[in-house]
Design goal:
The protein has one domain: Rossmann fold, CATH 3.40.50.1240. The protein contains 8 helices and 6 strands, in the order H-E-H-H-E-H-E-H-H-H-E-H-E-E. Strand 5 and strand 6 form a beta hairpin. The longest helix has 19 residues. The model has no long low-confidence stretch (mean pLDDT about 95).
Length: about 210
């Protein structure tokens, strides 16, 4: 079933459909740099991804469009309409790693990344936050948004790789140690629903880029 058809069926039930979307590509993504809270814009590819994503969902009746307050998420959401920023949906604070090449940091901090691969949940990036803290923050923000909105037409929420992965793992009751196995492509769409409990209907849909 095509995602839009699935979404239409959900909209007719007593639930809130949620399109949870990762932002488009940035130059930092392309260069494999840690981004975190840096307020970087979409690059040319990311702008094209956002346009294609928005075109695929332009005809949907929506209750609202929401995004992380960071520029790359706002730009992606703005391709569809004016978003309302949600502070709790900011990316994981990556502290002293932000802006640096992943290859350089991993070479300098092999013990940190060995532990990250084993169990990242309580590992604090220097001057940043833990993944567990990020999950509590972003899952709470999304759930509060769903409760405030109520059932009916869908909402769109645009955020970040680790925010989306943390939320999906929470709903699926899977450990945060699996975060590195849950990739979210740029402008990937996840279809969720909320009726007092969360359900995941589809993950990492990239059909709009085909």
């Amino acid at each position: 079933m095509h995602l839009v058809s699935h979404l239409t069926r959900l909209s007719a039930s007593e639930t809130l459909p949620v399109l949870l979307v990762r932002h488009g590509r940035t130059r930092h993504n392309a260069e494999r740099r840690f981004v975190g809270r840096l307020d970087v814009p979409l690059d040319e590819t990311g702008q094209d991804q956002a346009k294609r994503w928005a075109k695929a969902y332009a005809d949907l009746p929506l209750q609202g469009i929401f995004s992380s307050p960071l520029l790359r998420a706002k730009q992606t959401a703005s391709a569809l309409g004016e978003p309302t920023p949600i502070q709790g949906l900011q990316e994981l604070d990556q502290g002293i790693f932000e802006g640096r090449l992943a290859s350089e940091v991993m070479a300098e901090e092999p013990e940190f990344f060995a532990q990250w691969r084993k169990d990242p949940s309580s590992l604090r990036i220097p001057e940043g936050e833990t993944l567990a803290e990020c999950q509590i923050r972003c899952f709470g923000a999304l759930t509060q948004l769903a409760q405030d909105t109520g059932p009916g037409k869908p909402i769109v929420v645009v955020a970040h790789q680790l925010v989306l992965a943390s939320i999906l793992l929470k709903i699926l009751q899977l450990p945060l140690s699996m975060v590195t196995r849950l990739h979210q492509s740029n402008t990937a769409v996840n279809l969720l629903s909320y009726d007092g409990r969360w359900l995941v209907h589809r993950m990492n849909d990239r059909s709009h880029l085909a």
